[in-house]
Amino acid sequence: MADFVIKELKFNNIETELKSIGFDESYYRTASKKFKYKNLKIFDLTPAQANILKQTALSCGADCATHREVITGNIKTSDVILGGSNHELTKIAEKLKSQPFKLSKLSDEIISLINNKKQNVTKLVGILNITPDSFSDGGKYFEPVNACNHILTLIDDGADIIDIGAESTKPFSEGVCAKEQIRRLKPVLKFIQNENLKIPVSIDTRSSEVADFALNTGASIINDVSGFDFDNKMPNIVSKYGAGIIIQHSKGTPDTMQIKPAYNNLIEEIFFALLEKIQIAENNNIKNIIIDPGIGFGKTKENNFEILDRIEELYTLNKPVMVGISRKSFLGITDNNDELKDSLSAALSYPLITKNVDFLRVHNVKLHKQLLNTITF
User: Fold this and answer.
1) Active-site residue, selected from the candidate residues 54, 184, 328, 341
2) Which three-class secondary structure state does DSSP give residue 176?
3) Per-residue pLDDT tens for 327-365?
4) Is 328 an annotated catalytic residue?
5) Which residues have a Cβ under 8 Å from the Cβ of 313 and sit 6 or more positions away?
6) Cα(234)–Cα(241) distance, rounded to whole angstroms?
7) What domains are defined for the chain?
């Protein structure tokens, strides 16, 4: 046997580990900051800003990586990777408060990021496709009576929001005109109004005309899978009603998005695309903004799993995050075995729930509600 026994700690609750070794309980909350680490990527610093940040980091026992030409000043800007414990990052932020070149503002943002802890319980968005051709349940709820009955089932199963789509946006699908989407939506939205159902309703549409009708007929959220790219009137319509918006990242349109999608830096491209759309929404005075990285929308299988693995990087956009993995093709099931698809969807949902993702968009609400009840303490 080895002379020393060593175990790497992966448990996030370092306070509990400190208590377990008999550490001074009066100090463990403060000390725990020394054992929690972050790597921050900061974009487009001038050489002067980058040099000051690096020297400040080194003086606090942390580290900071910059472009090799920062020291010469032969570049205009450099991205920077700042790494250290929360304790060290706090010290760096405090020292930056007295530095020039707007670094005091960077100080505030670092402190805000350190203090921003997601502790929410994941909410479930129940999917209702009133289409003849959606990838999972196309045709099943196309008739209004079936759709309305399913709404009641989704509510009973524990949905927090119901997301209704009258246009399939599966890969290689063709668009549905606004008039037809409205025709499909009208009896369903009227049912919700007549039954006085209080659950928030989201409408999955890229069309501002459809959004206008739906928001005027009781819906309160628009789920735009194009992220404003399809219809530039969408922000104005959402703002007019004081409604919420789900901004999804997509690369291309449904009919083209899965034709050899490629990225130079997947997460950064999604990050900056969503940041741009958030700014559009906020410039239109939209307050309730949810972001969605768009699993399967212009993504390879490898892209989808990378997004799931790195989902927390999108939390720094400071908006609620929704993820939709339910029954999608990257699960690798080509037949119509919804039970197996739901089981795999729930398996992939588990780490997202433990990472405190804000919303999961799912077909099988009952199964995911049971999962939440099982693992939420």
Assistant:
1) 328
2) coil
3) 988 888 877 788 999 999 999 999 999 999 999 999 999
4) yes
5) 267, 271
6) 11
7) 29-115 (3.30.1370), 123-375 (3.20.20.20)
